[in-house]
Amino acid sequence: MSSLFEEIRERPGGDVPTRRVTITVNGEPRTADIEPRLLLAHLLRQGLKLTGTHTGCDTTNCGACTVLFDGKPVKSCTMLAVQADGHEVTTVEGLAGSSELHPIQEGFKDEHGLQCGFCTPGMMLTAKALLEENPNPTEDEIRWALSGNLCRCTGYQNIVKSVLWAAKKMQSAG
Amino acid sequence: MYPSRFRYEAPRSIDEAVALLQEGGGEAKVLAGGQSLIPLLKLRFASPELLVDINGVPGLDYHKVDPDGTIHIGALCRHADLERSTILPARQPTMAAAAPLVADPIVRNRGTLVGSLCHADPQGDWASVVTALAGYVVAQGSKGRRKIPMAQFVTGPFQNALGYDEIAVEAVIPAPKGIAAGGYLKLERRVGDFATAGVAVAVEMSGGVVSRAGIGLTGVGGSTISATDAAQALVGAPLAPDRINHAAELAAAAAQPRSDHRGSAEYKRHIVRTFVQRILTRVAQPNGRAA
């Protein structure tokens, strides 16, 4: 498969060393030959065409590029793709089942947890990790957990409500 | 943004990593959590020829306490590990207070304490904490291991005392002789922003008297500041309000802040004074070890 970010694909003389990596993305092993300097966000977006992972600030601030790396939220603009070799990555595309939304997605829909939607994938993945560690978080705990994800539209109120909604739904589903 | 080209190696042992650094001959960088280094690579402020990723080296993700109370933090111990530590709250309140204030929760899942010390950013929280605790870094290189006291480890902004073939394998906090007390406070405009100012205070109490004290200042100078006069002013007496205020004045005087978009120099000095007072006043309360 073609896996390299366009600008990195220029290979002077074809002598640029690449590495073969196999990363389990949303449950499926994906193999790619990549330059070590390729960022995880770029591999996901340009290589694997999983464009749900957004790059916002590109400077480790905004959290729009958050994915789960072995279950923990990381900023994929601040990891090399080669570092994910042999590991598991979950992107927003991995949240929904084949026919139904994940309760966190339902929560964001029901509670109007997004306006432009740019920060939403990162918000939902951070929320997923939170709810796995702490299924019944307080509002403060949600705000704390989401403090590395920036939203410029909603003022966070509805995002927090969305996560509370999802926590309730997931708890009642047992 | 993406980094310039580099050769990437992922050694499986420290010895292998050191050999790679030797081979790199000063053109190599060690990658641990990467939360400072990768942004620097992307901005092309750093363009190493060789990147030595130590994330695959087993057995470096620990933090542990010896029977005598010495605390060891391995090179791959993440900020989040320290934030969730069951050891630190009872043993080391200054570290326990700082861990949840480093960067933001997502960055804390990757970034490491040892990496933060090596990065030697004047805005780094851990350098102030380890300075206040009179800790040291254990470096391993081709000539073996050596201990570098924190006071000598940071040699300037973004500069450390490591040789080109040395890796910081752990940070060590010496065992307290008295009861460890203290805290860390930071003012930031929002979570994850660089500190407007931060203050680490570590004291050891023996029989109600301060037997040792250290104060480290974040973000108010060209590098981490050890407010030694302020700390010394606390030693040998109980934490009475006049002592606390005197130490706070000396710490504010030791700060070398610059006016910028985060606040005026005068304002930052005021924060330092207030934070020293606040931490020590809480410590001085009955059962007030942590602040």
Question: What is this structure, in a nutshell?
Answer:
By secondary structure, chain A is α+β, with helices and mostly antiparallel strands.
Q: In angstroms, what is the radius of gyration of chain A?
A: 17 Å
Order of helices and strands of chain B: EHEHEEEHHHHHHEEHEEEEEEEHHH
CATH architecture of the largest domain in chain B: 2-Layer Sandwich
Residue windows where pLDDT falls under 50 for at least 5 positions of chain B: none
Q: Number of domains in the coordinates of chain A?
A: 2
Q: Going across the biggest sheet of chain B, name each strand in turn.
A: 4-5-10-6-7
| Count of separate DSSP helical elements of chain A | 6
Tell me the radius of gyration of chain B: 19 Å
Helix content of chain A: 25-40%
- Our count of helices of chain B gives 12
Arrangement of strands in the largest sheet of chain A: 2-1-5-3-4
How would you spell out the order of helices and strands of chain A?
HEEHEEEHHHH
Description of the molecule:
The complex is a heterodimer of chains A (174) and B (291). In chain A, 33% of the residues lie in helices and 14% in strands. By secondary structure, chain A is α+β, with helices and mostly antiparallel strands. Chain A folds into 2 domains: 6-94, Ubiquitin-like (UB roll) (Roll), CATH 3.10.20.30; 103-172, DNA polymerase, domain 1 (Orthogonal Bundle). Chain A has a 5-stranded mixed β-sheet with strand order 2-1-5-3-4, with helices on both faces. In chain A, helix 3 packs across helix 6 (157-172). Chain A is globular. With 291 residues, chain B is of the alpha+beta class. Chain B has 3 domains: 7-56, Uridine Diphospho-n-acetylenolpyruvylglucosamine Reductase, domain 2 (2-Layer Sandwich); 63-173, Uridine Diphospho-n-acetylenolpyruvylglucosamine Reductase, domain 3 (2-Layer Sandwich); 179-284, CO dehydrogenase flavoprotein, C-terminal domain (Enolase-like, domain 1, 2-Layer Sandwich), CATH 3.30.390. In chain B, 32% of the residues lie in helices and 25% in strands. Chain B contains 12 helices and 14 strands. A 5-stranded antiparallel β-sheet of chain B has the order 4-5-10-6-7. Chain B has a 4-stranded antiparallel β-sheet with strand order 11-12-13-14. In chain B, helix 11 (241-254) runs antiparallel to helix 12. Chain B starts with 6 loop residues before the first strand and ends in a 7-residue tail after the last helix. The model of chain B has no long low-confidence stretch (mean pLDDT 96). At the A-B interface, strand 4 of A face helix 2 and helix 6 of B.
